[in-house]
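Limitations

Structures in this collection are predictions, not experimental determinations, and the ligand pose is part of the prediction. Treat each record accordingly. The example that follows, with NAP as the small molecule, is included so readers can see exactly what is and is not provided: the inputs are given verbatim, and the output is the predicted complex.
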Amino acid sequence: MKSICIQRNGGPEVLQPLHVDLPAPGPGQVRVRHTAVGVNFSDINVRNGGFYLGHGPGFPLVLGNEAAGVVEAVGANVLDFAVGERVAYAGTGGLFFQDTGAYAEQRNLPASCLIHLPEDVSDEQAAALLLKGLTAAVIVHRCHLPQPGDSILIHAAASGVGSLLAQWSSHLGATVIGTVGSEAKAGFARRHGVAHAILYRHEDFVAATLKLAPDGVAAVFDGVGRDTFIKSFDCLKPFGAAVNYGNASGPVPPVDIMLLAQKGCLALHRPGFGFWGATPSTRQSACDELFDLLRQGAIQPTVSHRFALDDAAQAHRTIEQGQAIGSVLLIP
Ligand SMILES: NC(=O)c1ccc[n+]([C@@H]2O[C@H](COP(=O)([O-])OP(=O)(O)OC[C@H]3O[C@@H](n4cnc5c(N)ncnc54)[C@H](OP(=O)(O)O)[C@@H]3O)[C@@H](O)[C@H]2O)c1
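Predicted complex:
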């Protein structure tokens, strides 16, 4: 069984194939043959090490939190899944840097982290949608629910999570202002929920946002982090929601809580997907909501790049260079 692992932290070159014998699934476990693996920015953070990962996991380490596939075998006491069924997962129950292992042809997983895939959702759609969609869901349901009359600022609005947030916010009736890194991404973003695109590497996004929404926006959804988050406070209306969910440009510096008062009694949120649909009883319904939005055409996960498992390093380079639009998949 081939997997892609790292033996040390470093650049994309540390991603190397590792052949291992997979034991039979233990009690409560299911063996899944992966057909589509979602590549996430967090995989790059785990590969690089340091940062907020503390001591991190040991080596060798197989990366990856998300995949879709087919059940190959079930262990004792597994009642909900049968051989041949299509399944998917995003995370296995712990934090995103714990219990990784999706960059592999097959994997034994706790049955409790799996969901059943409906017939009308493809494996690629599931692998492109689940982790990023659950992130969007926790933001929409727990941080700020976009509504008609709201203007929402979404950074990196052509990114995996940003694009889903833009589509979902627009579907709920909000006017989305989206920052993007290129004209091509601006075009994509406008076709995926964004009413006004700002090329934030060429234009001051605070001034541009306030020109479009002079009273300020109701919320900012930010996965870029260091380069955008604190500046974004100046875009918010009083009592607005400042939501940081990621660090694509680097970690957000420490925030003085008094700044929130000075900038208009802002609410500060730092959500994580793992806390949404976190139990077996809520996980399937959290994913079913995403599948319903997909069926309605309200959200569409775009896959800009597909790579073979052996080309995982190239997948990482594509994401790190900001070339991806929507999601990137590995196809074992
Ligand atoms: N909290 C959670 O549970 C959770 C879940 C999923 C993801 N995340 C985090 O959210 C962030 C975005 O995830 P994603 O899947 O949407 O990522 P993605 O699709 O890879 O998009 C990241 C985008 O960020 C922008 N960016 C700005 N500065 C960058 C830099 N220095 N290097 C690379 N990209 C940069 C780029 O867009 P432009 O070219 O438009 O600037 C890039 O395309 C990541 O930090 C990820 O770890 C958190």
